[in-house]
Amino acid sequence: MVVEMQLVMEIAATVFASVGMAVDHGFTDLKVESTSVFDKGPVAYWLTIVANLVTWQFCFMGTAAMVFLTTSLTGGICSTALMAINVVGGVVVYGDEFGGVKVVSTVLCVWGFCSYLYGMYMKNKKLEKERGELVEMKEVVTQRLTQL
């Protein structure tokens, strides 16, 4: 059900954006941009557009699937990690400026992600210790029962 809802939202957003572009002659602007602005040529331009569309659809469907299979907290944490990767990728691949706002947002994303991972590590460590104590107690009770 979650994936179907995500799919319906994606289709609605695609239709809404396509109608808006058709009304505002945005598709004509894309054609002009592919031939005169994009320096790799029109084929590379359209392949970039299609690859970008497919990649984002996989990202959104993956996030919805993660929420469905785990929790919304896990989906949010992974989205936060993706934001930091997206900023760094833009700087590395496209040569964007890595100014103050991007630095702060990236540091906060990485900090939040690392805090979550550390918290889960400590929680799992505590659970393993408690389970180990339970196993030891079970062995002691079993030994005493066999002695009776």
From TrEMBL:
It is found in: Membrane. The chain crosses the membrane at residues 7-23, 43-69, 76-95, 101-121. Its main location: membrane. The keyword Transmembrane applies. Keywords: Membrane, Transmembrane, Transmembrane helix, Transport. InterPro entries: PUP_plant. The keyword Transport applies. Belongs to the purine permeases (TC 2.A.7.14) family. PANTHER family: OS09G0467300 PROTEIN-RELATED, PURINE PERMEASE 4-RELATED. This is Purine permease 4. It comes from Penstemon davidsonii.
